[in-house]
Design brief:
With 639 residues, the chain is α/β, with parallel strands linked by helices. It contains 22 helices and 23 strands.
Length: 639
C-alpha cells in the first residue's frame, strides 16, 4: 500500500493529503465540542455536518494558499511546520467567523481545543508520513552495476538515486577515455573487471544502458554476461524514451533476440517500393507472424490499396485495427477467406485489380502438420495452386511465395508440401501468362507463434524444466521485420520461377540458447555437474519429421544478386504437365482423406522427401480400419 502511495503522481498525492485534512478538521471540531460539553458529541442534523464541512474546506483552502501542499512529504521540515502553525491560526479565525455568522454559539474553550487538536492532527499526519516514507526508502536496495557510462547510463544512475529498489555501485564501459573517471560519484571500470566487481560488491543484477548500440554489440555483451551469476536487465530503447513512451528507469527483460540476430542491413528502397508503391497489394495469411509484418512493411510504402486476406477472423481484426490506426491514409480492405476457396479468391483479385500478391498463408507448425496431413496438403499445396491460378486469371503482375528452409530435402509433411508448392509455381512459370512467379526461402523468425524464445522464457518463469527435443539441434534465426523486408526486396528481383534464399547468418545451437537464457535470468542450469541448480534442460527426443539441422539450398550452386543478403538458387524444376499429374493424385487423396497414401505420393514425387517411419496422422487409424473392413467384405477366392 505504501509503495503504491509513493508511486502516485504528485498532484494525486496532494489530493489525498487534502482529503485527509478535511476529515481530520471535521473530527477535531467534533472532538472539541465533546470535551467542552463533557459528553460524546455526534452531529444531530445536516446543519452540524455542513458547518464542519464548510470549515474544513475553508481551512484546506487556507493551507493551500499558505503553501502547505507544495511541500514534499518525505522532505518536510521547519518551513512546513510554520505553514501548519499559521494555517491553524487562520482556521481558528475562520471558526470564530463562521460561528458568528451562523449563530453557532461556539465558545472560547471549543476554539482553543479545536486549534490544538487540529494542529496536532495536521502536524502528526505530515511528520508521521515522512517517517514512514523514509523507513520504506531505507530498506536495503540491491547492488547493481550499470553497463554503459554514456548519457543513458548517467541518466539511469541519477534516476536510481531516487528509486527504491536498486543501488548503483559502479559503471563499466569499453570506452578507455571514461575508464577511471568518476560519474555520479561512481567509478567507471573496464568491462574486463565486471566478473571481479560482481563478486567483490555483491552484485546480483547488471543493467544495460546502451539503447542505441548495434545488435552485434549487445550480443557480445550478453554472451559475456551469460557466464556470470547475475540477472541482466536493460533500459528501454532510445526511440521509446525520446517519444515519451518509456522512462529511463523502466527496466525490462533482456531482448533474447539480441543473442541471435545480426546488425540489420538498410533496405534498398528501389527494391522495397518497386512492387508496392502505388500498387494494389494483396497479402494472404495477413494475420500470421510473417503475413502481418509484410502488411506493415507494405503499408509503410504507400500502396494504392492493401488487401488483407486471412482465414482467422480474430487475427484479421487485430491486424486491420493496427494498420488503420498507424496508416490512416492507406486504403485497407480486410477479407475473411480461405486460400482453398477459389471463387472468393477470384472475386477479391478481380474486384480490386491486384498488382502484387505475397502468399504467406500456410500451416507451418511441424508437429501439427504431421498429425493433419490432409489439411496441410489442402492448405499448403492446393491453396497455393488456387491462389496462383486466380492470380493468372486476374492478370496479377507479381506473385511471391513465402517458403521455408524445411522445403529443402524435407523430412516432414510441412516441408514436403511447401516444396510441392514451389514446384507448382515453377511449373506455372513455364506456361504462357502475364503473372511472374517467384519464391523466397528462409528459416525461423524470432517472435513468431511457436518460437522457442517465448516458450523457453515461459518455462523459466514457471521454474522449469526447459524442454528440448535434442541436445545437438540447430536452427537459423532472423528477426521478423528484416525477413519481411527481404521478402519484398527479393520479390522485386524475381522473374519466372526464381527461387531466392535469404542469408540467415550462422545457425544457432538451441541447447546453448537455453543455457544462456537461464543464466541471463540470474539462475543456474541444473545438470550432472550442478545437481542443485535452478532450471533443468530436459531432452525429450526428436518429434516425427523433425530435423537436427536445416538447409536453404537444394543444389550446390547459387548466384549473387544486387542485395548482399539475398541469393538466387539454381534448382531443378518440373514441367507443368508433370506437376499437374502429381496434383491430381494429391486431390484424390484429399477427397478420400487418405493420409498414408498421400505420404507415399509425396515420398515418390521428386521432392527429396524422406518421411519419418512413424505416421502420426490423426486420420491414419481410421484409414486402416476402413481398409480392413473393405478387405473382409471381399468374396474369398476358392482354395
Amino acid at each position: 500500500m505504501l509503495v503504491q502511495l509513493l508511486a502516485l503522481p504528485r498532484n494525486l498525492k496532494r489530493v489525498v493529503a487534502a482529503t485527509v485534512d478535511v476529515l481530520g478538521i471535521m473530527l477535531a471540531l467534533w472532538f472539541a465540542v465533546s470535551v467542552d460539553a463533557r459528553v460524546f458529541y455526534l452531529p444531530r442534523n445536516w446543519n452540524d455536518v455542513a458547518f464542519a464541512f464548510v470549515l474544513s474546506v475553508a481551512s484546506v483552502f487556507l493551507f493551500y494558499k499558505l503553501g502547505l501542499y507544495r511541500s514534499v512529504t518525505r522532505y518536510i521540515g521547519s518551513k512546513a511546520f510554520r505553514a501548519v502553525v499559521f494555517g491553524m491560526l487562520a482556521s481558528s479565525s475562520a471558526l470564530v467567523l463562521f460561528s458568528a455568522l451562523m449563530d453557532a454559539r461556539v465558545n472560547l474553550n471549543v476554539v482553543v481545543i479545536y486549534s490544538l487538536s487540529a494542529f496536532i492532527f495536521i502536524a502528526a499526519s505530515r511528520f508521521g508520513a515522512r517517517s514512514v516514507f523514509r523507513q520504506v526508502q531505507s530498506r536495503p536496495k540491491d547492488n547493481v552495476i550499470i553497463y554503459g557510462a554514456g548519457e543513458a547510463g548517467r541518466q539511469l544512475a541519477h534516476a536510481l538515486i531516487h528509486g527504491r529498489e536498486y543501488h548503483a555501485v559502479a559503471f563499466v564501459d569499453d570506452d578507455e577515455t571514461l575508464q577511471g573517471a568518476m560519474i555520479q560519484n561512481l567509478s567507471v571500470f573496464p568491462v574486463s573487471k565486471i566478473g571481479e566487481l560482481t563478486h567483490k560488491l555483491d552484485v546480483k543484477r547488471i543493467l544495460l544502458a546502451f539503447p542505441s548500440a548495434s545488435r552485434s554489440t549487445r550480443r557480445n555483451a550478453l554472451e559475456m554476461l551469460s557466464h556470470l551469476p547475475v540477472t541482466v536487465q536493460t533500459i528501454p530503447g532510445m526511440a521509446d524514451i525520446i517519444a515519451g513512451d518509456a522512462k529511463i528507469d523502466e527496466l525490462r527483460e533482456v531482448n533474447i533476440e539480441d543473442l541471435l540476430g545480426r546488425d540489420a542491413v538498410a533496405p534498398q528502397m528501389d527494391l522495397l517500393t518497386q512492387n508496392v508503391r502505388g500498387k494494389a497489394v494483396m497479402v494472404t495469411g495477413a494475420g500470421g507472424s510473417i503475413g502481418s509484418e509484410l502488411c506493415r512493411q507494405v503499408a509503410a510504402q504507400k500502396p494504392k490499396a492493401l488487401i488483407l486476406y486471412e482465414w482467422s477472423e480474430p487475427s484479421l481484426y487485430y491486424i486491420h485495427e493496427e494498420l488503420t490506426q498507424t496508416y490512416p491514409d492507406v486504403a485497407i480492405f480486410p477479407f475473411v477467406g480461405s486460400v482453398q476457396d477459389e471463387i472468393n479468391l477470384k472475386s477479391v483479385m478481380n474486384s480490386h485489380r491486384i498488382d502484387t500478391i505475397y502468399h504467406a498463408a500456410a500451416y507451418k507448425h511441424v508437429p501439427m502438420v504431421e498429425m493433419n496431413i490432409i489439411q496441410a496438403a489442402r492448405n499448403n499445396v492446393l491453396g497455393t495452386l488456387y491462389t496462383a491460378q486466380a492470380a493468372i486469371d486476374a492478370g496479377v503482375e507479381k506473385f511471391v511465395l513465402v517458403s521455408t528452409d524445411k522445403a529443402v530435402r524435407p523430412t516432414n509433411v510441412m516441408g514436403a508440401t511447401k516444396r510441392l508448392a514451389e514446384l507448382i509455381l515453377q511449373g506455372l512459370a513455364k506456361t504462357t501468362h502475364k503473372t511472374a512467379f517467384c519464391m523466397v526461402r528462409f528459416g525461423n523468425v524470432l517472435g513468431s507463434s511457436g518460437s522457442v524464445v517465448p516458450k523457453f522464457r515461459e518455462q523459466i518463469k514457471k521454474g522449469g524444466p526447459i524442454t528440448l527435443t535434442h541436445k545437438d539441434i540447430t536452427r537459423y534465426f532472423m528477426i521478423i521485420p528484416e525477413a519481411a523486408q527481404l521478402v519484398i526486396q527479393a520479390g522485386a528481383m524475381g522473374d519466372q520461377g526464381d527461387v531466392f534464399v535469404l542469408d540467415m547468418g550462422e545457425p544457432i545451437k538451441i541447447y546453448d540458447l537455453a543455457k544462456q537464457m537461464i543464466r541471463l535470468s540470474g539462475l543456474t542450469v541444473k545438470d550432472e555437474q550442478n545437481p542443485h541448480g535452478d532450471i533443468e534442460i530436459k531432452i525429450t527426443g526428436l518429434r516425427p519429421g523433425e530435423k537436427l539441422y536445416e538447409e536453404l539450398i537444394i543444389g550446390n550452386t547459387d548466384r549473387l544478386t544486387p542485395h548482399p543478403r539475398i541469393r538466387r538458387a539454381s534448382e531443378h524444376s518440373l514441367a507443368w504437365t508433370e506437376v499437374e499429374s502429381l496434383l491430381n493424385d494429391v486431390i484424390a487423396c484429399c477427397a478420400e482423406m487418405d493420409g498414408q497414401r498421400l505420404r507415399d505420393i509425396l515420398k515418390d514425387a521428386p521432392l527429396d522427401y524422406t518421411p519419418d517411419s512413424r505416421c502420426v496422422d490423426l486420420h491414419y487409424p481410421v484409414q486402416i480400419t476402413k481398409k480392413i473392413k473393405h478387405s473382409l467384405s471381399q468374396p474369398q477366392q476358392p482354395q
